[in-house]
Amino acid sequence: MAGFNAPRDSQFIHDQFPSSGYLFDPTPAEELFDQAAICDEMMDLASRMHQPFTRKQLRLNAISRDFGRYSSGDYKTAVGALLKQKRLYSATAATRINDDVLLQAKPFGKT
Q1: Theoretical Cys-Cys bridge with 97: which of 47, 64, 101, 107, CB 3.0 to 4.6 Å?
Q2: pLDDT grade, residue 15 (50/70/90)?
Q3: What are phi and psi of 73, to 5 degrees?
Q4: 38 CB contacts (<8 Å, ≥6 apart)?
C-alpha cells in the first residue's frame, strides 16, 4: 500500500478509540453494562426502601440482592442517570452526589 505508515496509522487508530484501540468494543455482550435494566432494578429497590435513604444504602442493598451481577461503579452510574432523568431526587438537588447525600423517589419538600 502506497503511503502506509504502520506506526503513524496505528497511533491514529489508538487516538480515535482510546479505550481499547479497536473500532468495536471486544467485550462479550453478556458482560456489557445494561443501564436501562439496572436503573429499573434500582428504582424497584428504592420504592421498597424507607425514605429517604443514601446512595450508599441503596448501593449496598442492590449489591446484596444481585451479588456479582454489576460492579459498584455500575450502581453509582445508574444512580447518576436516575437523578438526571428525575426518577430519583437528592436532598441537594444536584446530580453529582457522594454516598452520604439523602435520596428519595419523590422530590424533597413535596408530600
Answers
A1: 101
A2: low
A3: -65, -35
A4: 70, 74, 75, 78
